[in-house]
Amino acid sequence: MDREIGEMRRVLERQFKATITDWPELIKLFSCEALEAGAHWIRAGQRRDVFFYIAQGLLRIYYIDQNGKELNEGFYDERMMLGPVASFVSDAPCPFYIQALEPTTLWVASYPRFHTFAMDKPDILNFEITFMQNLFYSNAKRDAKRLLSSGEQRYRWFCREYGHLLERLPQYQIASFLGMTPVSLSRLRKQVQISSASRIP
Length: 201
What we know:
Jelly Rolls
């Protein structure tokens, strides 16, 4: 556990370009939660005013449409921070589900307690602001790519951005994220492989 906490500090300071001088006090705000594969951390309609750091495992965020179809919004793995930010900032129920796809270990903190703790600590406050900015920026960038790109462009982008997850995710989960059927994804993968092979001299 001490190793996880030490790695968490190094990762967060590197990602958010901040030296967290009050780390011993800050880490007291976090507690460890374990999820089995398939377990939900939150369901649509629930409220949790917390965020978390993924120490181990793989999560997905998904919605369920009016026809009962699951639509993947994103995948999140080790060394990432996440939480229903828009929900607890607006004091509204969470509109999506967060589910573990693998056995997962999280370090979870209350956002209100974290915010209060950060108010008179510039390095922690900067960390909080950067976390919010990065989360909204990455979401906007991902949504634009998925809305404005062709199927092949989306698949090639996924391979670049999420290539490390290709062996950890079932094809139907990737297909849902890319907005296509598993059959269409299989066909597209073959086309991309043929296209790539034809370019090899």
